[in-house]
Write a structure and sequence with these properties.
Length: 355
């Protein structure tokens, strides 16, 4: 039996289920690292998120008489939601995020291929604005713990955001806010003269959500997906480059360092930027289908991330930026249509004669 699915149709040897398994494989190192840093409870949060997502998918599949668990998209959604949760979050919140992602965002619009936004991203935004205080409390990883288990807004990104008008550099701000650093970061900072907070964020020794603390492992996972041709380089590279450029040019305006004085490296590896750029902004369904469209989409993500992070009230802006660009993705496709196969542009004289 021939099953015809919604367009666009991309002829390739890679199937949906294989692509989703590649994504899971690429995410696992960062997820496992988060469990190592934050302990057993972080692993339980991931399991609860995945189980809720799979159960919701299975129940809706039963109602619609479809076995949609085989494409592993629900597994990816549950894993991403869990990785976007603080380790100390009550278990009900990832359950609500998973149910909202699968039922409201995905199935209400027709299932895989019909959703207008990345389900995991929309689920995270739903619980973030519903439970803002709980979603802003982060456990410190065990190498940094010195008594306090829970600290509200403990990430370097949040600390810099709160003191953005102080006129100090990011390292001085974090030091004055008593944000701890690991022994590895202190050693590398002393020997190489680099920001110790950048080292912690890059390697994965900072407070934050379970799966976003190690920028290094997320970059390696993203490069694996590019190598396997599950995603293209255009969205993550243009997203990160546009954000970095705007951060460098205008990032110092509110901090008192003026134009071309904004810190770049620390904001790039802080928060959910790497997770969003490689694993959420690159969703097949909710991004443009042409190369030009992907670049425009990525530039928009970089622009909105910078605006929210630098001038908005939130410390983080990745999820909202991608969601905003998901909304305009069909419009981008409309103005970046690929040329029809075999189409030949008529001569100018012929056009004038017809007019």
């Amino acid at each position: 039996m021939l099953n015809v699915r919604i367009s666009p149709h991309d002829h390739d040897s890679i199937s949906t289920d294989k692509a989703m398994l590649y994504v899971v494989f690429a995410l696992l190192p960062a997820a496992i690292w988060g469990c190592v840093m934050f302990g057993f409870r972080a692993a339980v949060v991931l399991v609860v998120s995945i189980a809720s997502s799979l159960l919701t998918e299975w129940l809706l599949g039963k109602i619609n008489q479809e076995n949609t668990l085989r494409d592993y998209s629900a597994l990816v959604t549950g894993l991403l939601i869990g990785m976007n949760m603080p380790p100390s979050i009550p278990f009900l919140i990832p359950v609500l995020a998973s149910v909202f992602a699968i039922f409201i965002v995905k199935w209400t619009f027709g299932g895989l291929g019909c959703n207008w936004a990345n389900p995991a991203l929309a689920g995270r935004i739903f619980v973030f604005f519903s439970f803002s205080s709980l979603m802003s409390k982060f456990s410190l990883p065990w190498p940094l713990k010195s008594g306090a288990e829970l600290v509200s807004s403990a990430t370097p990104l949040s600390a810099v955001k709160m003191e953005i008008t102080s006129g100090l550099g990011s390292e001085a701000i974090l030091s004055s806010a008593n944000v701890p650093v690991s022994g590895i970061a202190s050693s590398l900072s002393a020997s190489l003269g680099i920001n110790p907070y950048f080292v912690d964020e890059f390697l994965g020794f900072a407070g934050g959500c379970i799966g976003e603390v190690s920028a290094l492992l997320l970059i390696l996972g993203g490069l694996f997906l590019i190598y396997k041709k599950v995603i293209t380089w255009r969205i993550p590279v243009c997203y990160l480059a546009s954000y970095a450029l705007l951060q460098w040019i205008f990032g110092g305006v509110r901090g008192g360092t003026g134009l071309f004085g904004g810190a770049v490296l620390l904001p790039l590896v802080s928060g959910g930027l790497m997770l969003g750029a490689f694993f959420m902004a690159t969703d097949w369904v909710t991004t443009p289908t042409t190369a030009k469209g992907e670049i425009i989409f990525a530039l928009g993500c970089g622009f909105f991330t910078f605006i929210i992070r630098c001038f908005g009230s939130l410390a983080e802006g990745v999820s909202l930026a991608i969601l905003l660009m998901n909304m305009v993705s069909p419009t981008i496709d409309r103005f970046c249509k690929a040329k029809k196969f075999g189409y030949v542009k008529p001569p100018k004289k012929e056009k004038e004669a017809k007019a």
